[in-house]
Amino acid sequence: MDEGNATFTKIFEYLNIFQRESILTLSPLGAAAEISANDTHIYTIPPELKDSLLSLSTCTQPDQNYKSLELVVGKTRYSGEGGLVTYSAGGLDVVQVIAPQGEGSWTYELGVGPSASYALNETVTDLFFVDSDFANSLLVTSPLTELQENLTNIVLLKDWGDSNPVVTIDSLEISLYTSLVNTSNVLYRSYCAIHNNGPLLNQKNADLSYTNRGTKHQTRAQYLLPGLNHSTEYVAYLTYANAQLNSSASPPPLGGISLGQASFSTTGSFSCQLVYNMTFCSEMAFAVPGNASAFSVNELTMFYDNMARKRYENFSKSLEQELCQGKLDDRYSVLRSCGDCDSSYRNWLCAITVPRCADWSSNGSYLHPRPKGQSRNPEINKYIDPGPYKEVLPCKELCYDLVRDCPASLGFSCPNKHMINLSYGSMSDDGYVTCSYPGAVFFEDAAHRMTPPWLLLLFMLFLFL
User: What is one GO biological process annotated to this record (predicted)?
Assistant: First the structure.
């Protein structure tokens, strides 16, 4: 067979695979293939799919330093990001998959289907890191979009393609890898790359629950990932399999959608233990000073929760003496209520009673060293007796909110600008949690979580005008 016929036969074989799966797997379809460096694969799109969304996912590549595959539509090249290239302009006819220059081979999946089938990637959820200790990590999704009374069947998206399936949070996949697993680090948007190697942990052994922590109290899914190795870097991915969109298709569609990822590391010492789902300090979820050889997580959670609840009792009695009801002019404030005061006090109290714990070896400039026997609260030294750790100090905004929201007669005040930095931390603009506050999540937009100091200043000026 001459070179021209061999090339034609190769293209015809790929075209046959693509067309067969295009017709049989309506939304979305996939064609799995291998391509060598410097090579090009050509596909002809069936007429009925010319206005569909096209998706190219790089599954494996020779090395992390290599470029991912490119998609050519007409005369334009598309390179995408994280191993995923999409094209949705319609008018598809012939498309090309092009491998970079170099050596070795790539594998990929090429899919085409209704653009609605990829809406989940943009509209549903993402994954964020909350905190970890030496063996556990807590992750949360972004706020969920549509809720049902039964939280085990939260609806994420309806009217999916022609078959109208219902996508729920329970059908999402979470997969955990060490950060050194081959090319998943650079192909983080490619479903087939993420699932190319077996994960260390998935949704079958992750503890899924729900929370509404945070100032807006929006419901999120949260995953507790247990049984991790200490001093280890991990990356977790949240994905959805296309096969679940049309389970009756034969063959089922390949690939899936990568919704988000979260990178984190476990601590090296045993001085910090992860607690969450507290009852009184319900907004707090992070590692606290602990002693794993003497306390279980449940025992530690109860200890801190009860300590804060006991301290709250005297404040509650004092607040009851204030003018919280009656005519607006008779109350202590026309802008704030006793409910605002109670909420701000509880947030402040929990932050100073339940310290956020970081590894002793951590080097952040915002961390306050706590040698053994020198915890913020004497009760921690007496009953928990943790090893040395570093504390993430409470945010100074918690103190500002307390002074703003509560009656002056209660006597709350914040340290002056020279002293406040000894007891409180400052919020970061780069997504890191550099001070402790309710519902803290790494790398989410922090713009509206708490009262900025300039807004507090405007409020104070308004009171005295």
Answer: calcium ion import across plasma membrane
Low-confidence residues in the chain, pLDDT < 70: 1-31, 89, 113-125, 145-168, 180-184, 242-254, 326-330, 445-465
Classify 3-117 by CATH class: mainly beta
pTM of the model: 0.80
Quote the Cα angle for 212-221-281, to 5°: 35
Lookup: tokens for 240: 């959805």
Class of the CATH-defined domain 120-265 = mainly beta
CA 22 to chain centre: 34
Of 415, 371, 369, the closest CA to residue 396 belongs to 415
Residues 6+ apart with CB under 8 A from 125: 141, 142, 144, 145, 156, 169, 172, 221, 238, 259, 260
* DSSP per residue, 16-46: HHHHHHHHHS-SS--EEEEEETT-EEEEEPP
Domain boundaries defined on the chain: 3-117, 120-265, 272-464
Torsion of CA 450, 454, 459, 463, to 10 degrees: 150
Angle at 55 between CA 54 and CA 56, to 5 degrees: 130
DSSP codes, 190-222 = -HHHHTSS--SEETTSSEEEEE--STT---EEE
Contact between 314 and 280 under an 8 Å Cβ cutoff? The reply is no
Q: What's the pLDDT score for residue 442? A: 87
What would the DSSP string read from start to end of 60-117?
E-S-TTSPPPEEEETTEEE--BTTEEEE-S----EEEEEPPSSSSEEEEEEEEE-GGG
Continuous H helices in 278-358:
297-319, 338-353
